[in-house]
Amino acid sequence: MPRTSLLGLMAWGVLLALLALSWKGADMRPLDLLRDSGNMAEYAASFFPPNFSQWRNYLAEMVITVQIALWGTALAVVCAIPLALLSSANIAPVWVRQPVRRLMDAARAINEMVFAMLFIVAVGLGPFAGVLALWIHTTGILAKLFSEAVESIDPQPVEGIRATGANALEEILYGVIPQVLPLWISYTLYRFESNVRSASVVGMVGAGGIGVVLWEIIRGFQYAETCAVMIIIVVTVSVIDLISARIRKALV
Predict the structure, then answer these.
(1) pLDDT tens across 181-204, in order?
(2) 133-163 residue pLDDT tens
(3) pTM for the complete prediction?
(4) CA dihedral in degrees (12, 18, 19, 20; nearest 10)?
(5) CA-wise closest residue to 195 among 244, 153, 231, 155
(6) Cα–Cα distances in angstroms (integers) from residue 154 to residues 79, 90, 158, 167, in the given order
(7) Coil, helix or strand for 178?
C-alpha cells in the first residue's frame, strides 16, 4: 500500500476515534430529536406568522448593530496590519514574531461574548463595549490571516526593490503591500460580514444593538416578534454579503 494511502487511512482512523471519544462528552442524543419532534413542531409553529409591529425599532437597532460591526472591523484592520507584519516569518525576526503571534492567539482564543462582558464592566452597558469586544477579537483573526498572506508572497519583487538600495519600510510599501492588498481586502470584507452576526450576539449581554432587543423578546416568550427580528438580521446579513461580493469582484 502506498505511504500516502496509509497515512490517509490513519488520519481517518484518528478522526473517527476522536469523534467516538467525544460522543459522551458532547452529550449526543440524536434519538431525542425523534422522540420530541412533536414538541419541537409546536414550538416552531409559535414563531409564525412573524410580528413586525415594532419594525421601526427593530430596524433602528439593526442599524446600530451594523455600526458596531463597522467600527470594530475598522479598528481591527488598523491594528492588524502592523501586527501581521511583525508576526510574518519573512518580515520579522523570531524574537519579535513569536511574542506577537502568542498575543494574537490570545485575542482569537477568547470569544467576543467574553470580551463584551469584560468591557461592559469596564465601560458600562451599550454599543461601545460591543465595539471594543469585536475590535480585540477581530484584530487577532485578521492579524493571523494577513500574516499568512504576507508569508506566501513572491519574494522576487521584494528582492528587486532591495537591490535598488531601498530600506525595510520601502520594501514593505512597494514590494509586500501591493501583493497582499487584494487578499487583505477580501479578508476584511468577510470579517465585516461575520462581525455583523457577532454584534447581534454580543448585544445579548448588554453590548447594544439588535441583540438587546432579541434577548428581551426571547425572555418574554414573544416568539412571533423573535421571528421578525431574526428575519431582519438574515436580510441585513444577506444584503451585506451581496454588496461585499460585488466589492470583492471589483477590487480583488
Answers:
(1) 888 888 898 889 889 888 888 888
(2) 999 999 999 999 999 888 887 777 777 877 7
(3) 0.82
(4) 110
(5) 244
(6) 24, 11, 8, 18
(7) helix
